[in-house]
Amino acid sequence: MNIKYFGEIADVIGKKSEDIVLSNNTLEALTAHLKSTYKLSVDDVYIAINHKVVEASRDIQITEKDEVAILSPFAGG
Amino acid sequence: MIEDRYTRQIALPQVGIDGQEKLKKARVLIVGAGGLGNAVLPYLASSGIGVIGVIDGDAIALSNLHRQVLFSEEDLNLSKSKIACDKLSVQFPDTEFEPYAEFLSGQNALRLFEKYDLIIDATDSVDARYLINDGCILKQKPFVHASIYRFQFQVAAFNIKGSGSYRCLYPTAPKNVQSCAEAGVMPTTVAMAGLYQANEVFKYFLGIGDQLTNKMLLIDTLSNRQDHFSYTSKLQGFITPDYFQEKYAQVKKIQFTETLHEGVFLDVRNEDEEPSSELNNSIKVPLPVLENDLSLLPKDKPIYIYCQSGKRSIQAYHILRKNNYKNVYCLHENANEINELKIKVG
């Protein structure tokens, strides 16, 4: 599946998007991947699936065609 | 006269004379006169918004000037809110400007929000955004948010006709987020974000178009990519006046067992409230008369305030701080608990 990273997260991990393969296509597997690969905690990021922000704790299936975005609040102004 | 200055916007069928009157009646508070504030302010004023309040406790610095275009070198070290209002009131005399040269805090937020129809979040800190959000929920005020990270910005309108709030989009603040000062920013990015905010404000007062409610617009100015992210609106029932006081009022608290012998205990309950205090060094001054009866309280000793539940102590705390009492604390314990501890520890 394709994941897009926005804001500070993209700079921290050094990429704006990537295609990944998960052992199973669930939100839980995705958050585990973010944590193990980039040390991103679900407390620090928000996940949107098909442009809808979802609760990281929910049991959600993700398909290969879904657009996944990793977001966080911006501070600047 | 009104038609002459605003004739080009009045010509729009979505505005007209009626719309112009709506803008004239509008009262808007802008929190922050930095990059976003400098972008949003001139356009709100030029369109004929009736009253604009500007709160910012910051002074103008040289590193601000590239994006805060209302300011020049002769303004360095002067108040951002005051200079912005001074300059804009010359250029846009139809608008009444109300500068507040202080930072938004738990002490002033609710009082200020009450005076305005809409709040603009033009701050540069995530913590301030939660303060604005929670204050707007309590005072039932709409607010328009924007925030920047390098070449990207987010814009959203919250709390409009039952729509979601910032906490629906981002329930909790992340631990580490970089501000413009840390991450860097181009003036055009922050200006675009401010103009999107101004545009949301116009739509709100004119009742036209689609507002950015229950969704956030994220724009990447390098790629010109735009994304909308929707979120679920949820009632934030935990945001109560008590929660707000506790979280933002910045009251210094102390445990009874940590108090010093030379300190004075201040009981702000009414005369007839039970239990009466077992403390030898406790003075009773009921909250309603406290401000007129400060002569009993020394300024050179710590003062430990308590009451029946803790609510009146917080109010008393702010009264004493306002009257230049520097060594003031609210006790964690209430009158009952203090008596029990007094008996226990002697």
Provide the spatial order of strands within the biggest beta sheet of chain A. 2-1-5-3-4
> How many alpha or pi helices of chain B?
13
* Relevant CATH superfamily of chain A: Beta-grasp domain
- What fraction, in percent, of the residue positions of chain B are helical? 25-40%
Number of strands of chain A: 5
| Low-confidence residue ranges of chain B | none
The share of residues in extended strands of chain A comes to 15-25%
CATH architecture of chain A: Roll
The shape of chain A, in one word, is globular
H/E series of chain A, N to C? EHEHEEE
Assign a percent range to the helix content of chain A.
10-25%
Query: Largest interface here, residues on each chain?
Result: A-B, 20 and 42 residues
Name of the CATH first level of chain A: Alpha Beta
CATH class of the largest domain in chain B: Alpha Beta
Low-confidence stretches of chain A: none
CATH T-level fold name of chain A: Ubiquitin-like (UB roll)
Distance between the termini of chain B: 77 Å
Kindly name the structural category of chain B.
Answer: alpha/beta
Provide mean pLDDT of chain A, rounded: 92
How is this structure best described in words?
The complex is a heterodimer of chains A (77) and B (346). With 77 residues, chain A is α+β, with helices and mostly antiparallel strands. Chain A has one domain (2-71): Beta-grasp domain (Ubiquitin-like (UB roll), Roll). Chain A is 25% helix and 25% strand. Chain A has a five-stranded mixed beta sheet. Chain A is globular. Chain A starts with a strand and ends in a 6-residue tail after the last strand. In chain B, helix 1 (2-10) packs across helix 2 (16-25) and helix 3 crosses helix 9 (187-206). Chain B starts with a helix and ends with a helix. In chain B, strands 3-2-1-4-5-6-7-8 form an eight-stranded mixed beta sheet, with helices on both faces. A five-stranded parallel beta sheet of chain B has the order 9-13-12-10-11, covered by helices on one side. Chain B has 346 residues and is α/β, with parallel strands linked by helices. Chain B has two domains: 2-230, NAD(P)-binding Rossmann-like Domain (Rossmann fold); 251-345, 3-Layer(aba) Sandwich (Oxidized Rhodanese, domain 1). Chain B contains 13 helices and 13 strands. Chain B has helices at 2-10, 16-25, 35-46, 80-91, 109-114, 126-139, 166-169, 180-183, 187-206, 241-248, 287-290, 311-322, 335-345; strands spanning 27-31, 51-55, 96-100, 118-121, 143-149, 152-158, 215-220, 225-230, 253-254, 264-267, 282-284, 303-306, 328-331. Chains A and B meet through helix 1 of A and strand 5, strand 6 and strand 8 of B.
